[in-house]
Amino acid sequence: MPNIAVFIEQRDGTVKKVAWQMIAKARTIVEAAGGEVWGVVLGDADVGEAGAHGAHKVFQAKGDALTTYNCEGWSRALATFCEAHSPDLLLVGSTAMGKDLAPRLAARIDAACVSDCVGIEWSDGFTIRRPIFAGKCYADVKVNTALAVVGVRPNAFTLGESGGGSAVTESFDAGLEGFVPKAKVAERQQAGGKKIELTEAEVIVSGGRGLKEAANYKLIEDLAETLGAAAGASRAIVDAGWVPHANQVGQTGKTVSPKLYVAIGISGAIQHLAGMSSSKCIVAINKDPNAPIFKAADYGIVADLFDVVPAFRDAIAALD
């Protein structure tokens, strides 16, 4: 009977949605295989809804050393938890923080580490599915260590019906008494506005070189706002300086798995497909019928984006 621990990532008290998605998936596994789902949170955050998503228990550690993320201190704290409670699997969201934290933790506790997971199965042991070769195929990784740390791609799992109820919260000692980190965070700068984070978004509208010039990226932003979506971009227009790197989707940008991905004026280079090919539904708009993006798309529109996008935006707006 496997016990699955889920790291509940929070920033300034706000929990990342991927944490609830991982807990819901973990609950479906233990419902069939037995065991429990444990939420693990570091710092001061309200995690009262963890039980509703499927957690049986929540373990929380607080303290000055856990106020601001520090990879050294936080990996020590999670290692202390793992050594005390011995989970069979620890799930960590593949966010900017998670990608930094998971491998450090795995190295500290001598555990297997599987990154960018999009599927988990249990049958006398865990099998982890992850994309390889820029998303062209998948590898099923069999976990044969006592504990594995697994990075989970945001939106790879849905919340759905978790079968959860209420979860008791227990405090635990993070083992950081007298701990002095080798490096400290001096300052944090946050991007302006209240834009939807790409990796958290359920709908993404991305633009590429077909926009022709930087000013036309407003077409992407306007459509994204109408759809309640995040605005993304291909590497070509990021390198051209049209939009910030934070908007880039692809192998050297952000990897996303939204319910809907709208690619506008994007040819579909393999580097871009690597970052969005796991989207549930892909819509491509491009005037080149031979653009590679159409091979990955569920729906394609072969037309001039300057004709289609304004009409698309107006049609969506008219539905309100």
Describe this structure in words.
The protein is α/β, with parallel strands linked by helices. It folds into 2 domains: 4-171, HUPs (Rossmann fold), CATH 3.40.50.620; 198-318, Rossmann fold, CATH 3.40.50.1220. It contains 9 helices and 17 strands. The chain has helices at residues 17-33, 50-53, 71-85, 96-109, 217-227, 235-239, 270-276, 293-296, 305-318, and strands at residues 4-7, 10-11, 14-15, 37-42, 57-61, 89-93, 112-117, 119-122, 126-132, 137-142, 148-152, 168-171, 203-207, 230-233, 260-264, 281-285, 299-301. The strands form 4 sheets. It has a 7-stranded parallel sheet, with helices on both faces. Strand 2 and strand 3 form a beta hairpin. Helix 3 crosses helix 4 and helix 5 packs parallel to helix 9 (305-318). It is globular and about 60 Å long.
Task: Give a brief description.
By secondary structure, the chain is an alpha/beta fold.
Number of domains: 2
Helix content: 25-40%
The strands making up the biggest β-sheet line up spatially as 7-11-6-1-4-5-12
The secondary-structure element order is EEEHEHEHEHEEEEEEEHEHEHEHEH
The low-confidence runs, each spanning 5 or more residues with pLDDT under 50, are none
Major beta sheet summary: 7 strands, parallel
CATH class of the largest domain: Alpha Beta
Q: Please identify which CATH superfamily of the largest domain we are dealing with.
A: HUPs
Q: In the CATH scheme, what's the topology name of the largest domain?
A: Rossmann fold
Q: From the alpha-carbon coordinates, what is the Rg to the nearest angstrom? A: 21 Å
Amino-to-carboxy terminus distance: 49 Å
